[in-house]
Amino acid sequence: MSKQSKQAPDPQVSLELSRRRLLGTVGAAGAAGLVVGGAGGALAVSGGEQAAPTALTTIGSTEVPFRPERAKHQAGITTPLQANGHLVAFDLVPGADRKAAAALLRRWSRTAEELMAGRAPDADTGVALDAGPSSLTVTFGLGHSFFDRTGLQKRRPVQLDPLPDFSADALDPKRSNGDLWIQIGADDALVAFHALRALQKDAAGSARLRWQMNGFNRTPGATAHPMTSRNLMGQIDGTNNPKPSDEDFDERIFVGRDADQEWMRGGSYAVVRRIRMLLDDWEKRSRGEQERVIGRRKDNGAPLTGGSETTPMRLDQNGADGLPVIPANAHARVAAPESNQGAAMLRRPFSFHDGYRDDGAPDAGLLFVCWQADPLRAFTQVQRKLDRGDALSPFLRHEASGLYAVPPAAAPGDYVGRPLLEG
Question: Among 32-41, 130-139, 207-216, whose mean pLDDT is lowest?
Fold first, then answer.
């Protein structure tokens, strides 16, 4: 051996390894060396030399671009459901004007782009240092009050008019609305929290937290084959969602070129509802009762008129008793586009569980998020119909609500909302 000792590696060099550099080949996903965070960790060094980065599994290495090459809309709308989510709303602080709002959205856009690419932003906390992008998406929206705070009332779209009151609403104003809204989704809980924390820190001095909600879905790969997610009632949820392959998908979900407000063209409108499920009451019902309430089988999501999950409902089919096989007030019937003049929205929810209430009932349910080109013709139309007679309504409590204009994705070098704030 040489008498001259090798120089010890600078630990800071290891710490500054970007999350991006830790990505390995997806083909190595079955290797025993895939466990990140085991003895020594992904950044371990051996014999005075930096070890090769540990390859990530498919889940960790999946990246969703912040600035899509072709699509005009932000990520997190048509992106497949992630396992973990955070919904958060902010209000601009007193005195924060249009210029301050623009600076904040510029910071947020820069941070989101870094995080979604698997890179650590400045002054990073290191929470997700050893993780890949994990399908992280960050989506930004603007509430009705944002335009009052920034003096942009004349550029507020009519589609952002407040939602009407519904008879089933029991809304908490402290957990509703907000000037600014962010949706965060990722397939790793630490990656999702890391993004939430980074964006909250970016808001300091410009906006204060109004409310925050945490959600989850089934982890990709947890089932034998890809399938529609289930909600906390055990029902397959989202069968009738519009599909990007549908001829009229963009027309239904995204704002078109003829929109009065040019800055929203290519964007969408998000309706957010915190819907608590009365699970104790629901679980006392027999499976047959539950299926009649929904109008679909619980095991495979097929309509009660037969077939598979994707078989169209036969709303005109009657049973031997002369009554509709799918009851007149079944949720699937009442919410169907056929019952609402073709109205459709893209549902992209998260489940939530926030502990237990004083009576011992679970504080759990659905963080309902739906996307549409025009809320009045989609969510509002369907919810009005549900409000008049939905068999599922007695098992639900709508406790928070929000409506947000979600601008298109930022162009290269731009930030989300720049055409509005600087146009």
Answer: 32-41
Helix, strand or coil, per DSSP, at residue 149: helix
Domain boundaries, the chain: 65-155+174-243+407-422
Q: Which positions ≥6 away from 122 have C-beta within 8 Å? A: none
Distance between CA atoms of residues 198 and 212, nearest Å? 14
260 as an active site residue: the answer is: no
What was the pLDDT predicted at 31? 32
Query: What single-letter amino acid sits at 195?
Result: A
d(CA 174, CA 141): 18
pTM for this predicted structure: 0.87
pLDDT attached to residue 221: 87
Per DSSP, the three-state class of 195 is helix
Distance CA 380, CA 208 (A): 29
What type of residue sits at position 175?
R
CB 133 within 8 A of CB 116: yes
Query: Among residues 130, 187, 237, 390, which one is catalytic?
Result: 237
Dihedral over Cα of 231, 192, 403, 258: its sign: negative
Q: How many CA atoms lie within 13 A of 389 on its CB side?
A: 7
Percent of the chain with pLDDT over 90: 80
Superfamily for the 65-155+174-243+407-422 domain: Apc35880; domain 1 (3.30.70.1030)
